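From the shared-data thread, chain only:
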Amino acid sequence: MADVPVFMISRIFEAPIEQVFDAWADQEKMAAWSGPPGAKLTPLSGEIEEGSVMHTRSDHPEMGTTYTLALWREVKPPSRIAWEQSFADEAGDKIRPSFFPHWPLTLLTEVDFESIDSGTRITLTWTPIEATPEDIAEFERQMGSMKMGWGGSLDKLAEMLAAS
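Structure, as tokens:
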């Protein structure tokens, strides 16, 4: 699909590249900061390593329980991490989320890390890779919400990095 929209967000963290990368590549650390404010993430199976599939549960007081899958494509310390991300059911099968009748079945998440004078810049892109035209249209409509969602997670990451 030639006209697939790509979501992008970038953030600078006042921490060394190795520390920022580790916050993404360490399963417990990633669970501590990722997801919307108020969410508690629990890894159920898998590891953050190339070729592994990780199944995660998220509990949120307002959003309830959701599950996700991550197929880790690249884990290249300290410069890049990439995975295929999908909503899942409790058994670990890919599903569309209940809150959107149309949503890409799978998104490619790519995070690039760059060492800069003041710390580390990350650039994250999210690209639909298993999606109908209706899914892509919904993805594009939700870009403002995605900016807020990822922004909230990155705020939590900044707090965690500042505290360590």
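The longest helix spans residues 143-163.
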